[in-house]
Structure formats: C-alpha cells, structure tokens
Amino acid sequence: MTKNDTAPFFMTHHSPVGAWSSFTMGLPGRGVSIDHETPNVEETADLMVALYHGPGMVKAFPFVSGISVIDNESLQTISQGKTGCAPSFKSFKERWQFLQPSEFQRRLSPTIDEYSDGELTLSIYTPHPALPDPDSDESLAYPCCPGLLMDLTIDNTGHTETAYGLLGLAYRSRGRIRPLDWSTEGLLSGIAYTNQWAMAARTIEGKVFTVRNNSVADALEQGRKVLHNGGQEGGILIQVPPGAKETLTVAFGFFHEGVATQGIAGKYYFNRYFNRVEEVCDFILEQAERIRRDCQVFDEEIEKNCGDHHRRQLFAQAIRGYYASSQLIEADGKAYYTVGEGQYLWRNTMDLAADHIPFELTRNAWVLRNIMDLYIDRYSYHDDIRFADRPGQQFPGGLSFAHDMGSFTSYTPAGTSGYELMDSRSYGYMTTEELLNGIYCFTAYALGSRDWEWANSRKDIAVALLDSMEQRDHVETGKRDGILKGESCLCGTGHEITTYDCLDPSLLSAVGNLYIAVKTWCSVRLLEAYFDKIHLKEEQRRAAEFAARTEVALKGFFDAKACYFRANRYQATTSKVIAAVEPLAIPLFLGEVQWIHADNELYSMLLNHIRTCLIPGNGMDAETGGIRLSSASTNTWPSKTALCVYVLEKLFGFELNRDYPSIMRELAVWMQVAAAEETVSDQIDSQQRTVIGAKYYPRAITTALWVLGSSMEK
Q1: Is 486 helix (H, G, I), strand (E, B) or coil?
Q2: Helix or strand or coil: residue 130?
Q3: Could you please report the per-residue DSSP string of 571-615?
Q4: Which of 554, 538, 669, 687 lies closest to 620, judged by CA?
Q5: Rounded-to-integer distance, Cα 107 and Cα 111, Å
Q6: What is the distance in angstroms between the CA of the first residue and the CA of the last residue of the chain?
Q7: Is the Cα torsion angle 440, 450, 596, 564 positive or negative in sign?
Q8: DSSP secondary structure code for residue 636 in this structure
Q9: 224 close to 63: Cβ distance less than 8 angstroms
Q10: What confidence tens digit (pLDDT) does each residue in 432-441 have?
C-alpha cells in the first residue's frame, strides 16, 4: 500500500471469502455493523479504539454513534450507587476525546484498511486468497477461514509514562457478549457473541488481557483486567512501556454451525476445519504473518497492474462488497459457491454471474464452472415461445436458464427462480437475456480456463444453446434476421424483460431491445469461437451465419441523421443508450474481438453512437458530468459504468482521464460519497448523487477489469 493511497471515510466491508459475513465500518459518527447473512448496515456496536496517556488523556477514533449502549442492569447499578459504580458515572463517549476526521488519515487498499494519527494506528487485514478447486487435494482451511486480522499499534516513544491501548466494542444488539477467558482457560483474551463471532488476542499476563463489564473506560484508565458480564462493553487491553512502540494482534472470527441452506441442505465449507469461533480466531492468530504478507503481495500486484490511484481505490471498495455477499457451502460432499445479490438476496443471479466473469476467471476459474454446472443440471429448462406475427400460436423455444437459484438461504426447486413470476411486469421472466448470459458464462469458462475436457463433455449443451437462439429468432427460417423476437410463454399475460427494466422504458422489453441485440451478437460470436476450439465445424458455420445476420440487423437500428442507435427496433424512442456497448466487455476481455473490427461500417456506427452519448445531456449528466447508461434516466449503475469505461478505453481508444475526467470523478463520488453510509451500492441518481437502491452490492467487482493487468487477448 503506497503512501498516496489516502481515502475518504465511508462504511467499508471487511469480509472473509465465502463466509457471507462482514465487519463493516469506516465512517466517523457510525459504529460497526457485524453482518452475517444480513445484507444491510446495522448499528451492532460502537468500535472502541482508544489510547490512554494519563488522567483525562484518552483519545479514540470516532467510529461510534450517539445511541446509548448502557443496558437496564447497568442503569440500575448506577442509580443504586453500588460499589464501584458512582452516581456520577459517565460513559466512554462523555469521557474520551474523539479525533476529528481531519486529525487522522485513512489508507485503503484491496486488502488493508488503515487508520492512523501517528500514535494510534488500527490496521485491518482482509485477505482475499484465491480459492483452490475443492475437487483438488489442496486444503481450503486458510483461504476459506471465516475471519480477519487486526493490528492495533501504539507508539509511546514520545512519552515517559506507560500507555494503554484498547480495541473493543460497546455492543448494543440482542443478547449479551461474553469474555473469551471463560471458554479458553484464559489463553485468549477478548469477547465473543455466542458462537457467532469473536474478537481475540493471545493473553500475555500483565500485558494483554480482557476488559469486560458495564464500563471499560475505568479499566482502560487504570490499566487493569476486569471480567464481569454486566453491561455490554468489552475488549482487549495492551500495556505499552514508556518509549516503546508495540502492536496488539487481534483476530476477528465469524462462525456458523449446522445447516445453512435449504432446498440444497448445505453447511458452510469452513465447518470442515473449524468447530467453534475460538478455533477460527486461534487459526487466524497462528497465520498472522502469512496474512500480512499475502495482503501486501496482493496489493503490490494490483498497484503494478494499475497505476491509477483512484481506480485502485474503487476496486478496493468493490472487492470487499463482492466477498461480503459470497458463500461457500458443502452438501453431500460437493462444494457450491454463491454470490448473493446484495440487499436483494437472489442467489447467483445469472446477470451478475455474467458480469463477474473477468474476476472469476482471473481469481477462481472453478467458481464459474461450479455456477454453470449447477445452472445446467438444476436451473435450466425448455420452454415454448410465441411471436407477435403469429398470434395465438406456440412453438418450441429450447434451452434457457432461470434468473437465479433462489433467495436468501434457500435454493428454489429445479427449473425455477425465486424472482420470475408468470403474469407479472415487476418480476417478469428474463428467458432471452438469461440464455445469453448463460452463453457468456459457458463459453467464457471454456475459452478462458482452457478446460477442454469440461468443454467437450458439455458440447451438447452448447449445441442446444445455439438451437435455442435460432428458434427464438423466428420459427420460420426465412424470417430469421439475427434478432431474438420470440417471447417465452412462461410470461403469461406479461412480457419478457431485461436487466435494465428499471432503467429506461425502451429497454424494458427484451423484444427489439438494442442492448439485447448487441448481446446476441456477442453471444453467438463466443459460441462460434467455442465450436472452433472443439472442432464442431457445422455448428461453427451456423453461429457465424447467425452473427452475420445480426450485424446487418444492428445497422438497421442506426439513425444516420441523429448519429446513434435507436434503443428499440420496434418502438419509437429517442433514448441514447451507452449501455448498448456494455456487452462487448466480456468478449474484449477474452480476446475474442477480431469480429468487432471486421465490419468497419458497424464499428464506425458504434464509435459514433458513443460520441453522441458522451454529449452532455445525452449519455452524460449535464449537471455533474457522470455517465448515464440511458439519456432517459438518472438511475445509473457503477458496475455497468465500469464495463462501459473498459470498452470505451480498450476497444474504441477513448482517453477518458484526459478528455472526459468527470466520468471517473463522478464514479468515485457515487461509490465513496453517495454510498458512504450504505457501503458499495449499484443504483445511483447521477443528478442528485444519492443512492436509489442495490445496496451492499457485489457487482462493482467489474472494476477488476482496470486492475487485473492484461486481458486474455491473444
């Protein structure tokens, strides 16, 4: 982490891999949210990070809120004037001097979050190790250990008196925290909540010990150990001699025992290695040096790949949001990896899986295969379709995929999603788009991982996907023009929608949708490349002919006079939709781009479309200069913006930092300022700079495209 990696203050995830948990903090005036399977920020506790230098000399970081943390028992004890609790009792919030944000500095990297005023430093290490394939013989104990490492460093070199440092919590959720001394025979100091989480350090007699009672302020100022389960305050104290600089190493562990999912009854994979939260913390403390080293190596790799400080920062925030929604379970001896859709809770939403491809392929390629295998084996289906020019008739549609695998902790039955409803507009079927997303995931894994054994074993699926595309073009071969016009009969009285349904009415319907047309073009070209690699020449020819028809049809979307593509072929629209180029990002990353350049006319149309969209008032907010994915809506999404930025720079040669600096500036505002209280959010009002929705969201991991180094381009 370089010296210039200073960052603003905002609520930030600190999340182990696959534990669906987060230690969320980072905004002055707010406490800490200890989240497990809870995709929203809650005020679980105040974070007590304090340094005592003598009577009346306690300073602390301001990660506390104004809500009272004194429980009823403590109030009664105080009011009755019991021994040790004077009527003039004051809480730590009244006794300590809290640093102002201007008095300390934050440095943020993908794995390290550090706060320091020089004398008091808190460093939180969140390792994001690559997950070995569970089918291999390699242990996953380290990469899927559900915990974090914290260092509290006290610099007492400038003082002649003993200093005391405290790292703890003023808990204010249900139940009561407990001292770890009682469950570890005093070997670990710290606090825990049931068997769900713990904050722990190795006990050093007279130097590192637990403070736990209704007011730890007295214990800090007196430098003494206290164990009492009244009240809701507790933590770990370290004594630092005059003239010394010392570090307290602390583990924060999560745990979840027993069945964690329904439909597919699975347990968290870490249950293979750990039986209780104390074991998690003990393991983290054993691995402390490795964690620090691995975090440093990962951050240095990211810095080497991306010299842009701001882009590294946005990725640092995004990778944390991704892992905060990640879950690795085991059922019947098989591993299942899930990324929840943030606050919306859908499991492995196919839309997000397709956008996560670059990160998954680079970090954990087996995850993409794991998700795709489950979609093929459990969450695929065959439907019937209808066409507007053949009213009242139904025809075989072919293979497609559900929108998701379920909701929250529950897997849905085979062939169904948790989201899609017949006869619904708000929760409409997305059969066409999920077909295309499935092709993205399928071909990207095959082409990107070069797992040709798997690719050949699944070739019947690839052929079925091409069949499905052709059938959804039109039932009559003579009317096939490369645009998917069939609509699933599963919609009932509703209509097929797209991922952009809430963005722009012209992008609501899948039929005639410009974004879907571009994604169709990309999908069939990826299938063509896949068929080429496994030597299915007839299917390769069919895919190439389909793509050629789509290219001709796309040119029909273009309004030469206005110099942009119409958002829908079958509707009268005026929207300028820069989101239309977003599907090009994945083929570009995979290095499958030769066909994009092959048709100079279409390439020029796309380039001119982008230029039109970048005119203020079109695809750029006239007031703020942020990208609007559609000129018709101020609802814009950081994750999709990142994909568009990648395409604009890498495929069309735009120098955005030079010519359009407001784009990246506003993206940083959306992620770090607008979403400061919500963590990373993926629906932002580009004009008001406020969060609309999609809080606690993983899809901003698309920013990985900026920091992964070179793509897979040949």
Answers
A1: coil
A2: coil
A3: S-----BGGGGGGGHHHHHHT--HHHHH-HHHHHHHHHHHHHHTS
A4: 687
A5: 11
A6: 31
A7: positive
A8: E
A9: no
A10: 999 999 999 9
User: How far apart, in whole angstroms, are the C-alpha atoms of residue 469 and residue 467?
Assistant: 5
Distance CA 395, CA 680 (A): 43
Owner of token pair 């393991």: 283
CA distance linking residue 6 with residue 559, whole number of Å: 46
Give the pLDDT confidence of 56-114 residue by residue, as tens digits.
889 999 999 973 334 444 444 434 444 444 434 678 888 899 999 999 999 999 999 99
Cα separation, 633 vs 13, whole angstroms: 29
Quick: pLDDT tens for 419-434. Answer: 999 998 889 999 999 9
Contacts of 182 (CB under 8 A, 6+ apart): 227
* Token representation of residue 338: 């899930």
Which residue type occupies 294?
A: D
What CA–CA distance (Å, rounded) separates 445 from 590?
A: 10
Residue pair 425/434 in contact (Cβ under 8 Å)? The answer is no
Q: Which of 353, 444, 361 is nearest to 401 (CA)?
A: 353
* H or E element that contains 697: none
Q: What's the rounded Cα separation, in Å, for the pair 590 and 593?
A: 8
- Which band of pLDDT confidence, cut at 50, 70 and 90, is reported for residue 502? confident
**Contact, 406 vs 347, CB < 8 A?**
yes
- CB-count exposure of residue 518 (10 Å: 0-12, 13-18, 19+): buried
The answer to whether the predicted template modeling score (pTM) of the entire model surpasses 0.90 is yes
Tell me the average pLDDT of the chain: 93
Amino acid letter, 81: G
| Residue listed under structure tokens 């479309």 | 609
Count the neighbouring beta carbons within 10 Å of the beta carbon of residue 265. 12
Q: Is the pLDDT of residue 219 over 50?
A: yes
Distance CA 708, CA 714 (A): 16
Yes or no: say if 131 and 143 are a contact pair by the CB < 8 Å rule: yes
DSSP per-residue letters across 226-250:
EE--SSSEEEEEEEE-TT-EEEEEE
331 membership: H or E segment, kind and range: strand 326-331
The answer for residues whose C-beta is within 8 angstroms of residue 377's C-beta and 6 or more apart is none
In whole angstroms, what is the distance from residue 518 CA to residue 440 CA?
A: 13
- Report which residue type is found at 133: D
